[in-house]
Design the sequence.
């Protein structure tokens, strides 16, 4: 079931303009009697398609003409004067992602169970989301309009899935013909216009590894500093992806990849002043190798792609421990913390080491449970893809009087997990208080000794 598959990357089916979803009381927008449900469709005669357009067209303007279609169907033309930098007080609808027109052999959508939530089948490929959130696009079906928009609105940086600079290999991976796979002109055009690019390679054993990978990295390094980094992340297979063209990633494969790429990284650091080609944390963890140092990651250019998360976590923990030691020379307040933290198989050993250290230093009783992903199966071991059913399967290992699960396992706008189980349902199945929490929130709670959110 691929509801959105092979839809064009650009569609004109959307309604004109951008919908207002919020008007701040006493703001310019409120004074103008704008309301949620109205649509802004032009500013100073220029069409507005989404809130990025609105931001671009209004930025720095103090006198403007805004054309609005009210929700009752009336068209208004508003003459607006505002002070420099004065906010309109408007909130807008989210961007509806464009869909890709590829058939990547490793596409995550192909690894979903058939009854997975429709949102898991969305194949987004959107230069706006790339700019805003670091989502990767392949640029294979980008329109001229979108190319111009990146340059005109300075939507930089852009995150581009290159996968391989060898055209045949790239076309094979993306499931498109070589003409479409060839994005060299587009990349040149963006770079020449001063747009920064971060690249990505999804590493598929026996397809774009070895020589192909080294060449891809070298070709991209030749474009440094305009191409500022490359993320190399391993193929992830679930039990539903049965494509015979794909070979699973093994421990030996990860070890070999580290052996092959480390000399390039050393050379780049000497020559370019940056590691440039970063391997995904998963590659080090699965290889059983130490995560590189803080210096290796520089300013973490690929953190949105999960690269350097473990190192950054360890640095945060070190800072947290120093703060707690300063604030709590005694053990009294923290020793009441007696509960379980659930996470994915991959991260569990890292977390366990940290929490064992805290238990020893501060008298807490924090227990780590490594949860297997039965929902997707295969080699999916990251925390954010765990489901309610997975947490329930590990219930026997829970200790203490609360359970923390990864915040990333919960939908951003609703207390529900990927298998549709709600947080309340999970709590009643586990007979526990369940709190979704990321490490930052956990750290703040410890530093402030504010355990209200644990409801213990
Ligand atoms: S991996 Fe990305 S680009 Fe490829 S088919 Fe899936 S959504 Fe599209």
Sequence:
């Amino acid at each position: 079931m691929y509801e959105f598959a092979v839809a064009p990357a650009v569609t004109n089916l959307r309604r004109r303009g951008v919908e207002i979803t919020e008007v701040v009381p006493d703001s310019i927008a409120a004074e103008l009697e704008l309301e949620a449900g109205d649509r802004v469709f032009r500013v100073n005669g220029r069409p507005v398609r989404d809130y990025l357009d609105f931001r671009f067209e209004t930025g720095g303007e103090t006198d403007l003409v805004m054309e609005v279609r009210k929700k009752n169907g009336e068209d208004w033309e508003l003459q607006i004067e505002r002070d420099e930098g004065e906010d309109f007080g408007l909130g807008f609808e989210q961007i509806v992602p464009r869909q890709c027109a590829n058939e990547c052999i490793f596409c995550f959508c192909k690894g979903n169970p058939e009854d997975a939530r429709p949102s898991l089948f969305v194949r987004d490929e959107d230069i706006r989301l790339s700019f805003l959130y670091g989502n990767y696009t392949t640029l294979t079906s980008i329109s001229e309009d979108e190319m111009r928009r990146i340059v005109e609105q300075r939507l930089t940086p852009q995150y581009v899935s290159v996968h391989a600079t060898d055209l045949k290999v790239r076309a094979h991976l993306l499931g498109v013909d070589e003409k479409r796979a060839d994005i060299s002109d587009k990349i040149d055009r963006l770079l020449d216009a001063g747009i920064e690019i971060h690249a990505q390679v999804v590493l598929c054993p026996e397809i774009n590894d070895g020589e192909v990978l080294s060449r891809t990295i070298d070709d991209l390094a030749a474009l440094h500093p305009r191409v500022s980094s490359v993320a190399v992340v391993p193929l992830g297979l679930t039990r539903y992806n049965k494509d015979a063209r794909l070979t699973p990633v093994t421990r030996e494969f990860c070890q070999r990849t580290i052996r092959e790429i480390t000399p390039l990284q050393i050379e780049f650091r000497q020559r370019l002043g940056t590691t440039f080609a970063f391997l995904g944390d998963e590659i080090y963890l699965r290889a059983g190798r130490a995560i590189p140092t803080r210096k290796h990651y520089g300013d973490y250019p690929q953190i949105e792609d999960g690269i350097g998360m473990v190192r950054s976590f360890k640095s945060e923990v070190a800072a947290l421990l120093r703060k707690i030691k300063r604030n709590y020379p005694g053990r009294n307040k923290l020793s009441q913390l007696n509960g379980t933290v659930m996470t994915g198989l991959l991260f569990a050993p890292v977390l366990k080491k940290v929490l064992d250290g805290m238990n020893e230093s501060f008298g807490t009783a924090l227990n780590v449970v490594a949860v297997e992903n039965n929902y997707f199966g295969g080699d999916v071991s990251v925390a954010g893809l765990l489901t309610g059913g997975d947490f329930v399967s590990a219930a026997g290992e829970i200790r203490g009087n609360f359970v923390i699960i990864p915040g990333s396992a919960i939908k951003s706008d609703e207390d529900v997990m990927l298998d549709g189980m709600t947080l309340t349902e999970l709590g009643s199945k586990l007979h526990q208080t369940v709190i979704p929490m990321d490490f930052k929130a956990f750290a703040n709670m410890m530093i402030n000794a504010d355990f209200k959110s644990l409801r213990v």
About this structure: The first helix runs from residue 28 to 31. The radius of gyration is 24 Å.
